[in-house]
Write a structure and sequence with these properties.
By secondary structure, this protein is of the alpha+beta class. The protein has one domain. The protein has helices at about 35-40, 45-55, 60-70, 80-100, 120-125, and strands spanning about 1-5, 30, 60, 105-110, 115. The strands form 2 sheets. It has a 3-stranded antiparallel beta sheet. A two-stranded antiparallel sheet has the order 1-2. Helix 3 crosses helix 4. The protein is globular and about 40 Å long. Pfam families: DUF7344. This is DUF7344 domain-containing protein.
Amino acid sequence: MTIHTDRLTNASDRRGRRGTDLPATFVDDSIPTAAVRRLLSNERRRAVVDALLETDEPLAIHQLVARLADAEHDATAVTSLHELRQRIHVSLCRTHLPLLENHRVVDYDPENGRVTPGARLSAVGSLLEVDLDGLE
């Protein structure tokens, strides 16, 4: 299924299989539901979307890494905070940010170390609280 924002929908069209009310417009232009599920299925990608929605301005990679590491760090864990930050940095730069950029959720500039809100950020962000299993 592809989600189109140019199509008018009524309440019954916005309901998933479980009856979850979904926003009338999921994303700018169109984006397959499977892509939305994939983007929001990972906690780090969800955290990136959430962080950019909170600040609504560009973030330096090191700020984003620090924010995610602080949220994920367990003081009783064997992994040090420094090691966790390194792991998060690598996973963001190699996997999560390029994927989010491919779907225009963020604009990622690896040369300057900046992540900027993309065209689809607010639309995808509106789905953070939606039960993705309810999407058809």
